[in-house]
Fold this protein.
Amino acid sequence: MLHLADDREQEECRVLMKFWWQLAMTYQEASEADLDRHVGPAKRDAVQKLIDAIRHSPEAIDTWIADTAQRFPLVQDRGYEVHRSRASPADAAVVADLAMAGLEFLERIDEEVSLPLPAPPPYLSPASCRPEHGRFDSRPEEVIDVDDPQMPAKVNAGWWRMVTEYQVLDERREVLLSVNYGDPGEAEYAWVRVRLAGHWDLAGSGSINLRSGFAGLFTDRFVPEFSMLSTDHQAMLNTTVWGNGTISTIVIRPDRLTDTPIG
């Protein structure tokens, strides 16, 4: 990926990342048609040679790695370098990870962040809130099984409708995202401000910071689960995996209660 995936070519990068991710999984995220459509001829040829090498032997893979490293120099992404120069080492890892999903890292929020008011009782998580707390759910057809073959596209579509309808993104397409700065198994959450790029794929990205640990009870595939907060702190969004193995998006927006009758 350091030699082939250049996020200045966002659609090509997205498909290459999906292909790379599926090498370790049991399902398909990027088809040969996707590769043909979005990956340039030279890189498409390199990908095909990798597929052939995988089918042949581990030694053939090692040869492919050595040849490809010489054929394609390391990608020098100027935009990423600018971010990395002003970010801590921990931030730099988050920058690179979120770029896979089409989220541009802007800054880490160090001060305390307020939640939508009036806030629900402190013992209630967003997923446990009720309509009287300002909870709005996805439509029934937007509740997707984690093993649905079209899960990434359907979850992306449901998230986009909710984030648009409830104005979770601001006019700059910016939002706060909760990410874990801790080591695996050791949570250390912080809010970061991100901007949604022109090309994005939250549900099929493979981003560590968007990956659901709970979904591992149901499937080996990448399933997203994350929390977002509007920059004006009026709306909180959760794309959530439920106990029956489905995924959907909910929004907590108490200020909409006067506009939406309950029951």
In short: Residues 106-256 form one domain.
